[in-house]
Prior knowledge:
With 757 residues, this protein is of the alpha+beta class. It has an 8-stranded mixed β-sheet with strand order 10-9-13-3-2-16-19-18, with helices on one face.
Amino acid sequence: xxxQLDPMKDDLPLMANTSxxxxxxxVLDLDVDFKRKVIEGSIVLFxxxxxxxxxxxxxxxxxxxxxxxxxxxxxxxxxxxxxxIKMSTCSSKTEYNDFTVxxxxxxxxxxxxxxxxxxxxxxxxxxxxxxxxIENHGNKDFLLVLDCCDLSxxxxxxVDVAAVSGIEKFTRSAKLTGVSxxxxxxxxxxxxxxxxxxxxxxxxQLYYFTHCSQAPGCGELLFSTGTWSLEIRKSGIQxxxxxxxxxxxxxxxxxxxxxxxxxxxxxxxxxxxxMGSPINNRALFPCQEPPIALSTWQASVRTAAGFVVLMSxxxxxxPVQLQEGILSWYYYVSMPMPASTFTIAVGCWQEVKQKSxxxxxxxxxxxxxxxxSCQSDFxxxxxxxxxxxYPCRFQNPAARLQAVIPYRVFAPCCLMESCEEYLLQLIPxxxxxxxxxxxxxPFSRLDILIVPSNFSSLGMASPHIIFLSQSVLPxxxxxxxxxxxxxxxxxxxxxxxxxxxxxxxxxxxxxxxFLEDIFWARAQQLSHDEIKGQQELRALLRWCRLRDEVQNSxxxxxxxxxxxxxxxxxxxxxxxxxxxxxxxEKIFMQVHxxxxxxxxxSLARTIGEVSYLASLRKFVVKFHGQLVLSQDxxxxxxxxxxxxxxSGLTVESIFQNWLDTSGIPKPLLEEGETWxxxxxxxxxxxxxxxxxxxxRRIRKSSxxxxxxxxVVFQQLLPDQLVLLLESLLEEKTLCPRILQCLERTYQLRExxxxxxx
Length: 757
């Protein structure tokens, strides 16, 4: 199967045959071993038959694409424990709260894990070959293909979900027979009923996922691992419909695996985290990587006491002690997401908390000032959601009014004071500004972690958790605030609304870059003129960055829609490639951020910002929980533009001018000079002139000591400083005295990371 795709070496292959079988839920049960730098345990996958083989229901709709008419009624409730839930009936209202796992259940999970570990060597499966001989049995049997890389797969088995107590409620047949075929069908029927439970039964569903994942195995499956995939089959099973729909995979990661990085934090303590690898999570657990494979997950992670486990999960996990020195952490999500968005970080993190009541009160006062005075813009929330059914916050009246979701901040102990200084105060302001712009927060809570110094970016957003670089902490609130706004924007664009084709990164990064300016301006409560000045200054800086990148990169990497008209297309099996997904240079490029930002900025200027932001909110309400292509957004936006403002704009013209070509778009070339008229830019130009003149006078009269103190230099904003320094770099020579004076005048060592760079 791998050879059929024949991906270029720079393309990332997505091998999973999602058209045949689609993962709906993962249950991870893992141990983190820092001595061996290994994460090991099991993962249980619950499947539905894929669209190629699915029988349509009596209404003619396929479940993976159906649009449910029922709304998800939700109410707040008290925390409860999974084993204690009475599951005889579904609640008429969905409850949205935190789950915790009791120690008893976690011990059962741990015991099961150890029993299987003991049996591993007796099973006769060679972990060195990591292969069961599929070839000898012919190729008639159905092959389940999962994305997998850098993993040692030890054993794969079918899970006997029919053995779970109380599971008979999911069977339609009145009685069981001893016939093996009927028992296999019964297991698949149970899984089907479980994964298709309505949203208001999500607690019951999670309860049974937990217990089914702990059910005994009922037969080992044959498997083979390749460079990019794990192939699994069951002898004699020739169709996806008959293939086991609940399987358990025993595996362990490798220290050199590329999905997680083992390192030390800034305090010298060991830690491990997912750092946004180009290969995503396939070296952390076997999965289906294609975005179409939207799934929920739950995870129990055990580690030594003293370590904190943070994860993309709806609940704020509290550790349970299993035995002396071992803690277990449990997280879950009920909103289906691509497996690539799963995130974990294990380390000796400390929670950073507000020290004084005065600070908290001051923040709350600022938040109230920044909230919109009228909620009429959010009237679209009353419409039915268009996504597959799940407990949706957009249909929860309490969530729709929540300007600031619960948040926590974690950091190594040596950085806690730095976090207290700015970050803690900025979070509620930025969350509130985002809410005022886009409406309902898609996720119920947020953890923010200051990750180790080897993190190669300024930030990374995942469901319920944001990673921030230590570089955003020093030098005032500007860089910290703008980067925080950027990552918060990804909750809507990149997570709640994802790209159906990963080559269209601009849908995530272009929107986040555009919205970070909107959010940050609102968080600072700037006047209209101040907002305009700052945004034009930032536009000029980004234009310079884009110009430099275009001049120094391959043309093929500058195209925002590299697959053009074939964007979003899959093979019959569902497999595909991410074009240039493994190209080393691409990791450091910002073209998707910058060209995407300028396209959105251009559209906003055409329509008018007020109308444009209203269209964004409408788009969010219509497409949250779904995957989109560029044309989905552009078509909806153009429908909202009055004819007199369109100026010949069409989806095709936008593709041609902005998305399908390399270089700087033609409309942007015409606009580039206009930002130089901005007052903030003019101010920098005046200061540059002063510095250049002073430099020339000193060089001409080197014997006479010229007094630089006689020149009056103005104080500049961080973005102005960046522009000033970039302008001065164009001078052939700057004498040492000028450099020293620059340092003194602007206190460069105390500025943020962008100025320092």
